[in-house]
Design goal:
By secondary structure, the chain is of the alpha+beta class. It has 2 domains: 57 residues, no CATH class; 216 residues, 2-Layer Sandwich (Bacterial polysaccharide co-polymerase-like). Helix content is 67%, strand content 9%. Strands 2-3-1-4 form a 4-stranded antiparallel β-sheet. The radius of gyration is 34 Å and the shape is elongated. It starts with a helix and ends with a helix. About 5% of the residues have low confidence.
Amino acid sequence: MPDLFELFYRWRKQIISLVIATTVIATVIVFCIPKKYLGVATALPAPSFVTDKTGVFSQNLQAVYSAFGSPDDLDKILGTARLDTVYIAVAEKLDLAKHYDIATDEPEAIRKAACFLKKRTKVIRTDYGELQVKVWDRNKTFAASMSNAIMEKLQGIHQDVQTANNEMMLAKINEEYGEERLEYQKLLDSLQHTTSEALRDLLNVQKTSLLQQMQEYEQLSKKYKLMVDARPQALIIIENATPPLKPDKPNPLQVIICAAILGFFFALITALVLEKRRLIRK
C-alpha cells in the first residue's frame, strides 16, 4: 500500500481539482436552495391538579404538586401532535393551501397542505421538560404563525377533552340531584299524610339522609361548574414563536465545509484505487 503523503503528492492536482469542484458545486447549490426559517413556540405542562376537581379544592393535595407539571405530563400531548386532525385544523385556519401553492379547487387541497405542514413540523420534549413546536417555512412570518397555531390547537384539544369530561360529570350530578329532590318531595308529602309514629320516625331518618346527599350533590355541582367555566389549561405557554431574524436552513458555511471534506476523502479514495490499478498493471 503506497504512503498516503506520497499518494497525495503524486495525485495532488487531481485531488485539489476535485475538492475545488465539489466546493464550488456545493456553494452554488446551497445558495440556490430556498431559505427556510424556523418558528419555535415553547410551553411547559400545566400541573395535573388544576385539571382535577379533587386537586383544585384540596389544599393538602395542592401543597404536594409543583407549580408546573412533570415532563411525563407531555406524553399525551406528544401523542396528540402526531394526529392529522391538528394539522388539518391549522391548514384551514391559516389557508395553507394557498400558501403552499396548491390549487384551492382540488378536493384534497386542505389535506395536502396539512401533509406539507406535518412534514415541516417537529414537536419535541426538550431535556429541560419543555414542549417545543418547531416549524420550518420559506416565509418567516408564516413559520412563527404556524408554530403558534399548532401549539394553540394542542392546548385547545386537551382543554376540550377535559371540559367535556367535566360537563358529562356535571350533567350526571345534576340529574342525580334532581332525582333526589323528587324523592325528598315525596317524603315530605308522606310525612304530611302519615299518622303512624313509627313510620314518621323512619321517614324522618330517610329525610335527613336525603338532605345530606343533596347537600353533597350541590357542592359537587358547584365544583364541577367552576371547572367547566374555568377550562383549566393543559399547557402553560412561556414563549410564543416570533419571526426569526435569519434563516435556519441551509447553513452555507457548514454545508461548504462538509462538502470540501467529503470531496477530499472521495478524491483520496479514488486516487488510492487508481494508484493500485497502476501498480497492478506494472
